[in-house]
Amino acid sequence: MVSLQGEHIYLRALEPEDLEFVYSIENDTSLWYLSDTQTPYSRFLIKQYLENAQQDIFEAKQLRLAICNTKNKTIGLIDVFDFDIKNKRAGIGILIQNEKNRNLGYGKEALSLLVNYCFQTLHLHQVYANISESNSASLKLFKGNGFEIIGLKKDWSFDGETYTNEYILQRIKD
């Protein structure tokens, strides 16, 4: 079994106590462009989501984990989505909530742990990410973890005023 424990962070399943943390992320309108969210989420809906978070990835087709530092403080979330067991692939998304915790290596370590988990435990053949052309930090993070840009989706996202392009990045198991 692959460890979800790194040197500076660890990944863990979501708990009921994560309600306010998840609520604050899901309702931060400045982050909605990352996940194509268009409406706020109620605490009730997030509570229901957390109650169902114990669902197996093979059933739910997704997995969301909390990123925690060595002081057991939750600093972000990392997701496996569109889990496709037939084709042995899944998407990955990551968010470090507070800017002061970014560019410190936490995202790099979390991504590395999750990719290893996907390849070693879930036996996936490939993982991918969809990243806005303007999100240079995420592009650097994923490319630094062995992901390659395999395409550009032009005018992919609309923010109400302009269209933006989105890269698709892929990493195939060695």
UniProtKB/TrEMBL annotation:
Pfam family, any one: Acetyltransf_3
InterPro entries cross-referenced by the UniProt entry: Acyl_CoA_acyltransferase, GNAT_dom
Domain (N-acetyltransferase) ranges: 9-170
Protein name (Swiss-Prot/TrEMBL): GNAT family N-acetyltransferase
Organism: Winogradskyella damuponensis
UniProt lineage: Bacteria, Pseudomonadati, Bacteroidota, Flavobacteriia, Flavobacteriales
